[in-house]
Design a protein that fits this description.
single chain, mainly alpha, 2 domains
């Protein structure tokens, strides 16, 4: 509810709303994609394999992480 005014919606509603908020923020701040730093699609599998996500509060599967990285290329 921090980013959305509607109450008593599904978890998916709030997740989608938060993702939309992050996309808008990324656009407004003109954050570059990871490809600007030399990361390519072929690198995603290795990144997912070696990362430990110690400081991430959400438990992500390798597939979820790969999707997030792919979106940021």
């Amino acid at each position: 509810m921090l980013f959305l005014d509607n109450e008593r919606k599904t978890d998916d509603y709030y997740i989608d709303g938060f993702v939309d908020f992050l996309r808008k923020l990324t656009f407004q701040m003109q954050l570059p994609g990871l490809n600007r730093y030399g990361i390519e699609d072929k690198d995603i599998e290795k990144i997912c394999r070696v990362t430990e996500l110690k400081n991430n509060p959400a438990k992500l599967s390798p597939d979820d992480l790969a999707e997030i990285i792919r979106e940021r290329l």
